[in-house]
TrEMBL record:
<keyword id="KW-0472">Membrane</keyword>
<dbReference type="InterPro" id="IPR036259">
    <property type="entry name" value="MFS_trans_sf"/>
</dbReference>
<feature type="transmembrane region" description="Helical">
    <location>
        <begin position="190"/>
        <end position="214"/>
    </location>
</feature>
<feature type="domain" description="Major facilitator superfamily (MFS) profile">
    <location>
        <begin position="35"/>
        <end position="283"/>
    </location>
</feature>
<dbReference type="GO" id="GO:0022857">
    <property type="term" value="F:transmembrane transporter activity"/>
</dbReference>
<feature type="transmembrane region" description="Helical">
    <location>
        <begin position="257"/>
        <end position="279"/>
    </location>
</feature>
<dbReference type="InterPro" id="IPR020846">
    <property type="entry name" value="MFS_dom"/>
</dbReference>
<dbReference type="GO" id="GO:0016020">
    <property type="term" value="C:membrane"/>
</dbReference>
<feature type="transmembrane region" description="Helical">
    <location>
        <begin position="226"/>
        <end position="245"/>
    </location>
</feature>
<feature type="transmembrane region" description="Helical">
    <location>
        <begin position="33"/>
        <end position="52"/>
    </location>
</feature>
<feature type="transmembrane region" description="Helical">
    <location>
        <begin position="130"/>
        <end position="150"/>
    </location>
</feature>
<feature type="transmembrane region" description="Helical">
    <location>
        <begin position="162"/>
        <end position="184"/>
    </location>
</feature>
<dbReference type="InterPro" id="IPR011701">
    <property type="entry name" value="MFS"/>
</dbReference>
<dbReference type="Pfam" id="PF07690">
    <property type="entry name" value="MFS_1"/>
</dbReference>
<keyword id="KW-0812">Transmembrane</keyword>
<protein>
    <recommendedName>
        <fullName>Major facilitator superfamily (MFS) profile domain-containing protein</fullName>
    </recommendedName>
</protein>
<feature type="region of interest" description="Disordered">
    <location>
        <begin position="1"/>
        <end position="21"/>
    </location>
</feature>
């Protein structure tokens, strides 16, 4: 009986140790805190970027001499459209090439596109809208991969649920900070400084991520493993569908182009669903 008890206790210890290691993420307390902060910062800065042109919209528009609501709406819509559409392939790219790699690449593009958005004041609002679309793509690269870093690091544990909750709470905090500071820069200084400050923040995040975030455990992947057809139909369908609804709110449903974009977008999304269910090897 004594041997049996000892054996059962030993097996119990063996099964609890891995769970403890997973929950601790294998990091020192300070590095783990910095890791969680960087993960939540991805959500925070993405929503801050979205808000950068919402609160000071009239000031930005007046600097370009633009008062047309249809054109003004694109300063924010371009960001949200690409953000929502390009999240689809970003997670898969992270699985193939590493979530840390995509996190850093995303913030690098975010810094560059933020600088372009700032210097658009010398060019025109078309360049600003293009830069905002690039910012959205950048956020689509690092936000889902930040979440994936948490899932890979913690496994199934209460601590992972806590980090996910903090990640979600970072969204309204980021939006509020983005709107407030963009408005302060626009009213008291110069609205491009909000974008230049974002670029500087991204540079700091990149350096911190290189030091803090652990290396990825990569599995061999080939470019042929990527679902190009599914990505094209999914991203294009989401873009056209959202563009149609965005324009309809401004120009109304009397414009035939609105219906054309909506119908083509729906058809592409149906094609995407069929491809992913029936034909894709790596959906």
């Amino acid at each position: 009986m004594g041997v049996s008890k000892s054996g059962s206790e030993g097996s119990k210890e063996d099964t609890t140790k891995p769970d403890t290691m997973i929950e601790d993420a294998g990091l020192s307390p300070w590095r783990e805190a910095a890791f969680v902060f960087l993960v939540c910062l991805a959500q925070c800065l993405s929503l801050a970027g979205l808000a950068q042109t919402i609160a000071p919209l009239d000031i930005i528009g007046s600097s370009f001499g633009v008062t047309d609501e249809a054109r003004l709406s694109w300063y924010s819509a371009a960001f949200s459209l690409t953000f929502g559409a390009f999240i689809l392939p970003a997670g898969r790219l992270g699985d193939m090439y590493g979530h840390k790699t995509l996190y850093i690449i995303g913030f690098s593009f975010y810094a560059i596109s933020s600088i372009i958005a700032g210097v658009a004041v010398y060019s025109g609002d078309v360049l600003l809208s293009v830069a905002r679309a690039l910012q959205g793509i950048s956020c689509a690269l690092f936000v889902p991969n930040a979440l994936a870093l948490v899932g890979r690091r913690y496994g199934d544990s209460p601590k992972k649920n806590m980090v996910f909750a903090m990640f979600g709470a970072a969204a309204p905090v980021g939006w509020t900070f983005g709107a407030v500071f963009a408005s302060i820069f626009a009213q008291l200084a110069w609205w491009p400084w909000a974008f230049f400050a974002m670029a500087l923040t991204c540079a700091v995040v990149i350096v911190a991520a290189l030091v803090v975030i652990p290396r990825d455990e990569l599995h061999p992947s080939k470019i042929s493993d990527f679902d190009f057809l599914g990505t094209f139909t999914g991203v294009a369908g989401l873009l056209l569908f959202n563009i149609a609804w965005n324009q309809a709110a401004v120009v109304g449903w009397s414009n035939p182009l609105t219906y054309a974009l909506l119908i083509v977008g729906i058809l592409l999304l149906v094609a995407f669903a069929i491809i992913e269910v029936s034909y894709s090897k790596n959906p």
